[in-house]
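Q: For a teaching handout, I want to show students what a protein-ligand complex looks like in token form. Below are the inputs, and the small molecule is NAI. Please produce the holo structure.
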Amino acid sequence: MKETVLLGDLKDWRFTLDLEGIAWAVFDREGESANSLGRRPLEELMRIVGRVEEGARIGDVLGLVIMSGKEKGFIVGADIREFEQLTTEQAVVEAVAPVNAMLDRIERMPVPVIAAVHGVCVGGGLELILACHYRIATRDESTKVGFPEVKLGIFPGFNGTARSIRQAGPLAAMEAMLTGRMISASFAKRMGLVDQLVDSAGTLHWAARKAVQSKRKSSPAPHSKAMLAKWPARSFIAGKMREETSKKAREEHYPAPFRLIDLFERHGGSYEAMKAHETASFAPLMVSDTSRNLRRVFRLSEQLKAQAPKGLKWKPMRVHVIGAGTMGADIAGWCVASGMEVTLQDLSPEVIAKGIKAQGRLFSKRFKTKALRDAANARLIADPQGDGLTHADVIIEAIVERLDIKQNLFKDVEAKAKPDAVLATNTSSLQIEEIARLMQDPARLIGIHFFNPVAQMPLVEVIRGEGTHETDVEKGAAFVTAIGKFPLIAKSVPGFLVNRVLAPYMMSALARVDRGEDMQKIDEAARTFGMPMGPVELADTVGLDVCAHVGKILGLEAQGQGGRLERLVSSGRLGKKTGEGFYVWKDGKAEKKVETYGSSELERLGRELVEPLISEAQKALDEGVVANADLVDAGVIFGTGFAPFRGGPLHYKAAHGGGPSSGSEARAAAE
Ligand code: NAI
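A: Here is the structure, written as tokens, with NAI included.
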């Protein structure tokens, strides 16, 4: 029997003291599906810590166990929503100090403090357990630790930098903090972040009790690892880390990893010094535009997911894909990797076989055991006759882009499909209403528009035609969420949202090339702005035939006419896929000359290059292509890779007064 100890009115924690003198602090944040370390739960934890200190002094508490009361998940980190209240560095310092003081009190507790982890434990959650004396985790697939802070433009700020280095050594700890990757429980144990593994959540309680009774205490990283934190090894390692990090991110765009490396280089040799100096480097990052904008991107991704209705009874399990070419095969593979059963149809059985075989790479990346890979292969079924049509929950058409063929196909599909099945086309240029014209109920058809390459692109547009049933649009969004992508509900207009804003940007850049501007400089300027790839290289990667086609649909063909794009397409030089386009391609890379350009020149040009994209994004908003400005920004960031640290095109426009106002050539070219 347990005695419930009242510590005032706890809302986010349950605190009990059992008859053996073990205190159990169970984190179960009120009214929330996940535990985040917001102000109130932290204050309550401080009260718990105070009670345990007192109990240890008077002898009624022999140890403390920290657990989660949520069925799934331990602690998802600090409460990002509250970050917005911290508008000055001083406010950050004042918010962090009491938390760090509390973690120090946990660390100094005279009785054992054990963390018992089941589910995701990241960011501030990992920092909390690192202050405990001993960490037990379940071997469950869902149990993961990690420091995702860099993705929000910061690094661990609750002394996790020092404590992770102490436990795992500088190499492994810094790698975890610099990449933000999720770490399985068994790997965390090997790293030293976790001390003991148990098989299931059911045995955690028992293992934690035992750990308290036998006063288990974690050991820091072995001497061999810790030695790497000594100067000059540390300075050498810091140099290597800078080199690796700058391959992935530019310091001027994403300063957080670089500031973390600086902190490590200066103070990584001493646990106390690292702890003492962490906040001074952390606070400026917290209030930086980069971090604010990356937090915005995180919120935008939540908004996209929220487009799928909650509590829908309909659950998509079976998918039928028609067309096993470039898109169809990868869509089928992705759905299978997300746990669904997929039938794949094409006119050609050879194309189906080839498309299925090509999914092997995705499955071996996604599934670590042979049994799981075999199960995935068994869920991807070749279906040349289209037998799967009659029992599929979602039917996706990805055949040739010809209106008459698609119209006839859907007439047939509608007759065979279940009445509640979602019927969707992956068309990128035809009108949904036109494709649906021969159907009994044209309002059933929606667009589910994937981007190429399917496995890498996080966004999928869900297209609502004129008069489309809203329930089908909702089901489409629910399906997209079920396969782990972000749905963006968009109106059926040429180019939908993403291609519509991307095309003027690319075509105006190609028009610059026609006017004799240096294409390498154009691409470098776009990257300087923060685009993942320059527009000319992107055109080559997408395929110049596709670009010319999209340009035509969007009425931008005049820009390509008589120009290099037209000449390249008619001579069969289609870009990366044929080995030559604007660039010559070798081993999947565009060949470039070694050139250096002035940075202010690149910055100016970069801003000009994105102007057509930004003005088109504004037009799309004005025409209601998606519901609001945030969704425009979300769609453009996740659909085109638009510089996330700038917060989206419309956010950028608002922050910079609409960008450069000189009647630039870029704008002229776009119009
Ligand atoms: P693709 O040419 O690679 O594949 C089309 C496949 O459909 C071929 O294997 C063909 O045999 C098959 N097919 C043709 N008619 C058929 C029928 N009546 N029944 C069954 N199979 C049939 O084409 P891709 O690139 O995969 O494009 C497919 C659709 O996806 C198009 O509507 C395209 O606009 C759209 N799309 C393409 C993107 C891309 O980057 N390739 C991106 C987004 C959408």
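A: Two things your students might notice: Residues 114 and 320 are 49 Å apart (CA to CA). The longest strand covers residues 13-18.
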